[in-house]
Amino acid sequence: MYCPARNNEYEAGETSDLVLDCGGTVSFTQSFVYLWSLLHRDLSDHHDVDARIKKASKAFGTLRDRVFSTRDVSERLKGKICPGGVRTVLLYGCESWCLTAESISRLRNWHNKRMHEMCRLAMCQSFVHQIS
Known about the structure:
Radius of gyration: 20 Å
């Protein structure tokens, strides 16, 4: 991966394939996954936050029909499953993030929407009854 110096364009750098002595080649990439975190050439964390939101959405989606959308599972049990399964996927690797206000807002909004969905709470109910 090539990371240009500050105020330099990515395209200005030498990013052609490297030819190895053994005959193989190594190509440059703009992003890659290392230790389950997404590293991007601009070294910002919003790409990793986006990837974490997508993975947490998949985890929530797999549990939606059987656990979160059914009335057979108690609210208390749903409250124990969500932090252990979904929130863990969402916040994996967050210790190394340098979050901006925008990223924090995106994480908070995603989490609030899933909590409303888990509790079967419509947005109009939230507005009428002033539920945050």
